């Protein structure tokens, strides 16, 4: 006796769906057991998983579970479950990534809901200690009364998180003045995939394998890494060079969670400029403007942005001719 495809496919789908549901329930139960908020902080519903299958990019990856940690112990517990059940983990802040960095097929850990505290601000030392889910805007607002700010300001700074900014080594228009997010890191409280917790700051005394790796590849790291200011692709091995202070925190910035997960970050704060001025320069073409950049750098501008004629025309159409001075 032979069954037609119309007979077998529905039964196969039903069996697969039942198996998937059973696996998700088991994962949810394990996660709820390690979260301080219990089952209310883990969601395997179709709706929630669909919501977290996308970020600001064009990609769509359906996760198995979404969790909302409240404490460091929650994060450590999540990683323990992931190791036991062989499920990958993706950290997520505000989901502003346009490269698919905040989506993954395993457990998506949303730090923005609960794991988003500003632990301290020291105006004398000009540093702040924050959880990864704190937004740049929240840190700016908290630091402003002291005349301070977090330097990097990517275009999504009103909603993107510090953890995401460090994970991507984000910068923004003020990169000329403040550099990349990794350059503002004093230290990171980190846990790796094996559950080992450590402080990533200056020095590799506690990480001899990394020091050995760098020592064996000094020439290529010195000549091929960090060759220009806004190089953010790949691992920033130049941060581990001895002449750079073996800055493990700077090295981990931009690794997008592949080497460790941030539990808290100590970051530098910068004085807010007292009297900034805007200078607008016009050029016949974008190449002409680019050619003139080296002559502007000696004046130490805080920010430098280029706008072509098409963007200016959009402003004129939406705001009127008076919005763009001739």
In words, what does this structure look like?
Strand 5 and strand 6 form a beta hairpin. It is built from eleven helices and eleven strands. 34% of the residues are buried. By secondary structure, the protein is α+β, with helices and mostly antiparallel strands. The N terminus is likely disordered. The protein is 33% helix and 14% strand. The protein starts with a helix and ends in a 7-residue tail after the last helix.
Topology:
Elements: H1 5-32, E1 42-43, H2 46-51, E2 65-67, H3 72-85, E3 89-92, E4 107-110, E5 118-122, E6 127-130, H4 136-143, E7 148-149, H5 162-168, H6 175-178, E8 185-191, E9 197-200, H7 208-215, H8 218-224, H9 248-252, E10 261-268, E11 270-271, H10 286-296, H11 309-319
Parallel strand pairs: 2-4, 3-4
Antiparallel strand pairs: 1-2, 5-6, 6-10, 7-11, 8-9, 8-10
Mean pLDDT level: 92
Main pleated-sheet profile: 5 strands, antiparallel
What are the secondary-structure elements, in order, as H or E? HEHEHEEEEHEHHEEHHHEEHH
Helix content: 25-40%
Specify the overall morphology. Answer: globular
Strand content: 5-15%
Topology, number of strands:
11
Quickly give the CATH architecture of the largest domain: 2-Layer Sandwich
Number of helices: 11
Enumerate the spans where pLDDT stays under 50 for 5 or more consecutive residues: 1-5
CATH class designation of the largest domain: Alpha Beta
Please give the alpha-carbon distance between the first and last residues: 83 Å
Radius of gyration: 24 Å
Total domain modules: 3
**Lateral strand order in the biggest sheet:** 5-6-10-8-9
Give me the secondary-structure category: alpha+beta
The CATH topology of the largest domain, please?
Uridine Diphospho-n-acetylenolpyruvylglucosamine Reductase, domain 3
């Amino acid at each position: 006796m032979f069954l037609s495809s119309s007979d077998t496919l529905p039964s196969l789908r039903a069996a697969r769906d039942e198996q998937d549901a059973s696996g998700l329930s088991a994962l949810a139960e394990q996660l709820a057991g390690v979260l301080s908020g219990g089952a209310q902080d883990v969601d395997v519903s179709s709706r929630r998983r669909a919501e977290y299958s996308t970020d600001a990019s064009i990609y769509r990856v359906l996760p198995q579970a979404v969790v909302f940690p409240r404490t460091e112990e929650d994060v450590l517990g999540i990683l323990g479950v992931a190791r036991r059940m062989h499920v990958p983990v993706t950290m997520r802040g505000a989901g502003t990534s346009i490269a698919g960095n905040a989506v993954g097929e395993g457990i998506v850990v949303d730090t923005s809901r609960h794991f988003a505290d500003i632990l301290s601000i020291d105006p004398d030392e000009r540093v702040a200690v924050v959880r990864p889910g704190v937004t740049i805007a929240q840190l700016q607002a908290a630091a402003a009364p002291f005349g301070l700010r977090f330097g990097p300001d990517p275009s999504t700074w009103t909603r993107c998180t510090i953890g995401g900014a460090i994970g991507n080594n984000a910068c923004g228009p003020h990169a000329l003045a403040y550099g990349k997010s990794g350059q503002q890191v004093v230290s990171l409280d980190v846990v790796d995939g094996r559950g080992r917790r450590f402080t990533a700051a200056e020095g590799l005394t506690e990480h001899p394998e990394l020091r050995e790796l760098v020592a064996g590849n000094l020439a290529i790291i010195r000549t091929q890494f960090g060759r220009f200011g806004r190089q953010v692709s790949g691992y920033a091995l130049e941060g581990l060079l001895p002449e750079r202070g073996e800055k493990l925190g700077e090295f981990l910035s931009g690794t997008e969670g592949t080497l460790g997960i941030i539990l808290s970050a100590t970051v530098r704060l910068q004085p807010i400029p007292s009297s900034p001025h805007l200078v607008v320069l016009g050029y016949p073409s974008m190449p002409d403007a680019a050619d003139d950049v080296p002559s502007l750098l000696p004046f130490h501008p805080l920010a430098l942005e280029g706008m072509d004629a098409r963007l200016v025309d959009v402003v004129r159409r939406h705001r009127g001719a008076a919005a763009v001075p001739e």
